[in-house]
Records
---
Amino acid sequence: MSLITPSEPVEAVPEGAVPAPPRDRKRRGLIAALVTAIAVIAALVAVIAWPDEGDDAVTTEPTTTVTAAAPTTETPTTAAPSTTAPPTTAAPSTAPPAVDTTTAVFPSAGAPRYDDPVAAARAFAVDFVGFTDPVVGAYRAGDSRSGEVEVRAKSTGPATTVIVRRLGPDGSWWVIGAATDTVTVTSPAAGEVIASPVAVTGSALAWEGNVQGEIRQDGSRAPLGTGVFTGGGDVVRPFSGAISFTTPSRPYGALVLVTHSAEDGRVWQATVLRVAFDR
């Protein structure tokens, strides 16, 4: 008796039926095994995925997306300065009270005023006559409103006497003339009305006898006319001459006579008279 070891299951064949060929039997067996495997896998998936009744439902937190704002590159704008001028407030008037300057040589009517007689004399000597760094003495009162201040080109030089007076309600100091011992004027007289040419006479003691003469109008140091007179170089001697001058635009002015230093030519002495113009 021989033993047969089958390599695949023997399928029972009903009586009278024709048995299937071995290849068909093998295919059907594979299909049945595949179907069984699929059913088992589906059952496992259902068991795993099906939630227990006691389990809480899983809540998915909403996702919030935060987007960082991009840094701005816009340049900050600066307000343009206003071109509209601020309203102005009118300054209170500080004009000094009017002064009758018909007798005053210095300062001119519209110039700054002086509340000190020595300051007025110094400014007159430098700004009007032309002294260079003069030596100015103390004020010597003549009366309650007028007096004198001596001015010298240097401490050892001869004196020019500056005559000062208070004028106007503000009591400011004004120069009404100047005189020296070495230059005197006999004509014109102080305050006289003159016309061009004006005759000038007097006496003088000066370096080489020379006296420089000028006619000026108020408010200007520039002369309207000039002349040179010769007095004495060793002793006081008389002089005479005339000065022609252009037509002035002001009603008043001054006759200015000066001498100069033999050492360096600086202004040495001065005589100044107030005059009016015949226009």
---
Amino acid sequence: MYIKKNIPNLLTLGNLFCGCLALIHVFEGELVMATWLVGGSLVLDFFDGFTARMLKVSSAIGKDLDSLADMVTFGVVPGMMMYKLIAYVLLDHILEPPALSGWTIYPAATVNSYLPYIGLIITVFSCIRLAKFNNDTRQSDSFIGLPTPANTMVICSLPLILRFQPELGPAVSLINNVWFLGLLSFIMSLLLVAEIPLFALKFKNFSWANNKLVYVFLAISLLLILGLGFLAVPLVILLYILLSIVNNIFLKKKV
């Protein structure tokens, strides 16, 4: 029984471990490798809650562990990643050959400017978001504000677009713009704490009637990913927010 009740906690600690490794790679400028590690954390973050519900071993300690792990992986890591991206843009480094020829994007870049610190507001608002989630009874079956993993997916998609889709001129140009990155940091931070009800991607059953919104979202998301690759990630999150708003306004359905 002792082992059984701690299986979800081990998955949560795996999330934390991957987040710590990702943070090390961000410090070293290896943003793509950091993103893969965050992807591993996303998988573990999904399965720790799923496993706890399946084994019926949910606990207050597990909930606290989850938030603490998420603060590192989905709070500190995206904030530091944005810090690095802004620093590289200020140094005109992102589009130079080393940025696109390997896993590393200028590991030791430093810049004499305070602008990169804008990225850390993501970390601050992620902390507020996680604290609100733990104490908001309205968020037991849905979300109020953008979940921190979704926000992290948007931030982490940027180095993947640079590394694997440099032919996307307009998107690459935006990522190379300090003001765009700063504005994105503010927008994503506000979305984390915005009073916007968002539907949860959870299935209590698999019927169309009870899950049509989720099925529509997943179908469109799959098409976007197949057609646009990593560029689809921020568009999928935007779709998630827009579908939730449409659901709230027109379908009059409580999410």
